[in-house]
Amino acid sequence: MTAPLLDRTGTAAAARDHAHRDAASDPMLPRPFRVISRHLDTRDTVTLGLEPLDGVPLAFAAGQFTMLLAFGVGEVPISISGDPTGPGPLLHTIRDVGSVTHALVGAVPGTVMGVRGPYGTGWEVRSGRGGDVVVVAGGIGLAPLRPALLELAHERAAYGRVVLLYGARSPEDVLFAEDLARWAARHRITVEVTVDYGPPDWTGRVGLVTDLVPRAGFDPGHALALVCGPEVMMRAVATALVARGVAPERVRLSMERNMQCGVGLCGHCQLRELFLCLDGPVLGYDRLGPLMDIREL
Amino acid sequence: MAGPAILPSRGLQALVDALLARGYRVLGPQVRDGAVVLADLTDIDALPLGVGDEQAPGHYRLREGGAERAFGFAATAQSPKSVLFPPDELLWRGRRTDDGFSVEPASPADDPDHRPVAILGARGCDVAAIAVQDRVLLGREHVDAHYAARRAGAFLVAVTCSDPAGTCFCASVGTGPRPRAGSDLVLTELADPHRYLVEAGTPAGQALLGALDTTPATPDDLAAADELVADATARMGRTMRTDDLPELLNASAESPRWAAIAERCLACTNCTAVCPTCFCTGVQDVGDLTGALDERHRVWDSCFSQPYSYIHGGAVRTWTASRYRQWLTHKLATWTEQFGTSGCVGCGRCITWCPAGIDLTAEVATIRELAEAHDAVAAGAPGGAPTDGGAPTPGGLR
């Protein structure tokens, strides 16, 4: 830190104060975490359990993400998929889609990786208390919704009907099968799974998750909807939910954009006036809908 | 605070010497490779004495300027952004260890020359741009620690612009030619005899001014400065109406003009590199061959590059039209919503350094004409739409 040589006023003084304050807490510095568990969810998706080397647990809200660093390879934003209501390792469910996620997915227990965050807005599940909650997931989009479902299960009596509509590519791509069974059996969560491609022995649904929305059992006038998946799927689902009568501001989507800092400084995640790493990733469809209607905004 | 003072012509050397003696690295305008740029300055004879510039869309040439003038050109080709917010910044160094890895944050000492900087010759546009960067990088939830450290130590000596270029429009956006508050000292270069009117903007500037050999300014000196400002304002090369921009551009997301601009735009990123307020950055990890060392760098990025918007599955903005729309709409409209100020300070650099000569002031005017024609058609009024680009249709980008 360079000490100012002359007395400063105005913005420069503010700058100096910021500089001193942030010298110890630069948001761009990763905290080292050790991989303590690795669970192969599907052929290309792994859930890693992480523990901080400094012993200070990372508190988070359902829907938030971290910037995960594979040392020497790179850093990517990954949603937290663990339980926000209790202690336990920091969980991330990661699909192998690029060079950084490939390195993360391949990390064996003992590997140390960097974590920054948590960042962004959460699902605010509790705002749905007293009404029905409909959760709609597409593919890996179930991972950021898992903390919300765990929160719902944890305080199940505070909510009306809870419905999970989940679309996966194929039966072998279905994530968290044990969770799905437990939520249905123990927590009165209606779980409906549909796949794009089903083998001959698949007796479940085949088709788009969007098609499940019109028939799902919930009261649209008193429902909170949480949606995560590919953008085209979220747009279709939000349209279907609003068509059933859910208020647009009660339909929340988790948006994906390029993110390199996580703290609103690098600029990549902008969607018109929004910085999706700060203002999102979770936002209401009342805000997002008009922006999603404009191509390549 | 003492009033305006007059510094004699050679007194500028005493100002530079005083800054150097106080430990500053002094940067001032100098001619390098056919352009006026900021460079290390110890001797005022290195200033571009008698040099002017000629700027137009896609055009920059040096020319002979006023013989006695050291600041007889428009703003430097590159703005002070490259000093306070460098194109490549080391964030941290990591080392693989037996137990994982360790990370050591970069410090100011990592700069080869880590003295605090004094910038001599910043124009009104540059001073305004620094104020914008202060809001973006210091005034929000998360602060850019590296910019904060550089900015806190910096000393600004602004110079009133006497010779705006053909691409300048600071008078339209209210940032010049007389620099607004924000600099430590403001100089106005006066002729016959050659001298500088000096005004202090901060206590630090006042303290430095007090250490110089000056005389109080006379009403004639002040009148000469006012005349110079009025003359420069009248010679501004361009204008831009700004009062309706957020509404206009947000409503013009589907304007056919974006596609017309994209036929000329090369997406070369020159405009974002020379823009004094563009702040987008990417991170780069630079490792050694053994994989034991890893440096994280933050480098300037641009919304004109395709990888800028990359997510799994492809870029969000595949068309040049989408990227130009993002840049212009952000700069002139959403910037205001995000930071309470426009992102444009009227320096005109994006016009000068665009190899295709795209002029944002002209594009804004055309987008406005198209929107007004569209509104007129929608209201059933007679009269034609401008022929350039045709009337807007929904889905102009599709």
CATH superfamily of the largest domain in chain A: Nucleotide-binding domain of ferredoxin-NADP reductase (FNR) module
CATH architecture of the largest domain in chain A: 3-Layer(aba) Sandwich
What's the number of domains of chain B? 2
Low-confidence stretches of chain B: 383-398
Question: Helix- and strand-based class of chain B?
Answer: alpha+beta
H and E order of chain B: EHEEEEHEEEHHEHEEHEHHHHEEEEHHH
Unreliable stretches of chain A (pLDDT < 50, length at least 5) are 1-24
The counted number of beta strands of chain B is: 16
Strand content of chain B: 15-25%
For the largest sheet of chain B, list the strands in their spatial order.
3-2-8-9-10-11-1-12
Quaternary state reads heterodimer
Shape of chain B: globular
Shape of chain A: globular
User: What is the arithmetic mean of pLDDT of chain B?
Assistant: 93
Look up the CATH topology of the largest domain in chain A: Rossmann fold
Biggest β-sheet of chain A, characterized?
7 strands, mixed
Order of strands side by side in the largest beta sheet of chain A? Answer: 10-9-8-7-11-12-15
Give a structural overview.
The complex is a heterodimer of chains A (297) and B (398). Chain A has helices at 10-23, 99-105, 142-154, 177-186, 231-244, 285-292, and strands at residues 31-42, 45-52, 65-70, 74-79, 90-95, 112-119, 132-138, 162-168, 189-195, 205-206, 223-228, 251-254, 270-271, 274-275, 282-284. Chain A has 297 residues and is an alpha/beta fold. Chain A has 2 domains: 31-119, Translation factors (Elongation Factor Tu (Ef-tu), domain 3, Beta Barrel), CATH 2.40.30.10; 125-254, Rossmann fold (3-Layer(aba) Sandwich), CATH 3.40.50. In chain A, the strands form 3 sheets. Chain A has a 7-stranded mixed sheet with strand order 10-9-8-7-11-12-15, with helices on both faces. A 6-stranded antiparallel sheet of chain A has the order 4-3-6-1-2-5. Chain A has a two-stranded antiparallel ribbon with strand order 13-14. Chain A is globular, with a radius of gyration of 20 Å. Chain B is α+β, with helices and mostly antiparallel strands. Chain B has 2 domains: 5-234, no CATH class; 245-378, no CATH class. In chain B, the strands form 4 sheets. In chain B, strands 3-2-8-9-10-11-1-12 form an 8-stranded mixed sheet, sandwiched between helices. In chain B, strands 7-6-14-13 form a 4-stranded antiparallel sheet, with no helix packed on it. In chain B, β9, α5 (170-173) and β10 (185-190) form a beta-alpha-beta unit. Chain B is globular, with a radius of gyration of 23 Å. At the A-B interface, α1 of A face β6, β7, α3, α4 and α6 of B.
